[in-house]
Amino acid sequence: MATKGSFCLLLSTLYIACTVATPTNFIKSSCSRTQYPALCVESLSVYASIIQQDPHQLVQTALTLSLNRTESTKAFVTKCNKFRGLKPREYAALKDCAEEISDSVDRLSRSLKELKLCKLKGEDFNWHISNVETWVSSALTDESTCGDGFAGKPLNGKMKESIRARMTSVAQVTSNALSLINQYAAQH
Ligand SMILES: *[C@@H]1O[C@H](CO)[C@@H](O)[C@H](O)[C@H]1NC(C)=O
């Protein structure tokens, strides 16, 4: 009985050790504390081989993903802006949105450069990471404002829906990146 008990204990210890020590589980446990954990795991697991179990690499990948998605959303909004037959109010809403998303791209790419400084010896980690937190948080505000701007405006139904859907999805990716950055800052 005692032997059987110890054997089970050994097995479960091994099981836990094996469960914890994979990049995928590292991603899952980090993502569990974000606001959209399923999206976080789904979008970052693809990069498990790059991320490994390195907190800096995890954050850098999440931020790069947010920048990439924001850039392609910017391209989409810019294309909608060239759509003929927009009413002046629709045009104004799109123009505001294009400016906000463009600011968001700038802030995210600045954050990515700043984040890279966090890893360098002799650099002030706390200073750089707090800049990253501030800029990503503003980028998220820009993305949310852009989506909200269409709420009451009489934009062409289909276009309005597709812009709002894209804005919501990109804001979720950025929100996740921000949570991971906050975790990284807190753990340092
Ligand atoms: C971001 O975009 C670049 C250039 O298109 C691509 O090489 C890279 O894999 C993308 N990374 C992520 C995390 O989305």
TrEMBL record:
Matches recorded under Pfam families: PMEI (PF04043)
UniProt-listed Gene3D superfamilies: Invertase/pectin methylesterase inhibitor family protein
Keyword presence, Hydrolase: no
Molecular function terms, GO-annotated: pectinesterase inhibitor activity
InterPro entries with a match to the protein in the record: Invertase/methylesterase_inhib, Pectinesterase_inhib_dom, PME_Inhibitor
CDD domains per record: PMEI-like_3 (cd15798)
UniProt keyword list: Signal
Domain Pectinesterase inhibitor span(s) in chain numbering: 22-180
Signal peptide positions (record): 1-21
Entries under NCBIfam families matching the protein: PME_inhib (TIGR01614)
PANTHER family xref list: PECTINESTERASE INHIBITOR 7, PECTINESTERASE INHIBITOR-LIKE
Similarity comment text for this entry: Belongs to the PMEI family.
Name by which UniProt lists this protein: Pectinesterase inhibitor domain-containing protein
Taxonomic source organism: Psophocarpus tetragonolobus (Winged bean)
